[in-house]
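Work Package 4 report. The design task specified in the project plan requires that, given a folded chain encoded as structure tokens, an amino acid be chosen for each position. We show below one input record used in the internal validation round.
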């Protein structure tokens, strides 16, 4: 199992960059909610990852944005 898959399984966290590199990363995800993590300097990657997820049946239910460094979104698989 890859480190990305282990992190997803253990923490329900996926990095925006990982989603952009592997679009189907969450296709087999057993969870309904995951956290998509980025940084303040990676706005474009985070927004692109969110748009990718929305096109694959996920919706964003919450944002976490800290102007110092962290940014992310809680995504929910649409039933």
């Amino acid at each position: 199992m890859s480190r990305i898959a282990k992190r997803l399984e253990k923490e329900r966290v996926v990095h925006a960059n990982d989603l952009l590199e592997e679009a189907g990363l969450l296709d087999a995800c057993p969870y309904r909610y995951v956290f998509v993590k980025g940084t303040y300097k990676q706005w474009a990657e985070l927004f692109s990852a969110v748009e990718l997820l929305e096109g694959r049946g996920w919706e964003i239910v919450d944002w976490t944005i800290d102007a110092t460094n962290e940014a992310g979104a809680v995504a929910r698989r649409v039933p």
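The mean pLDDT is 90. Validation will be extended to a larger panel in the next phase.
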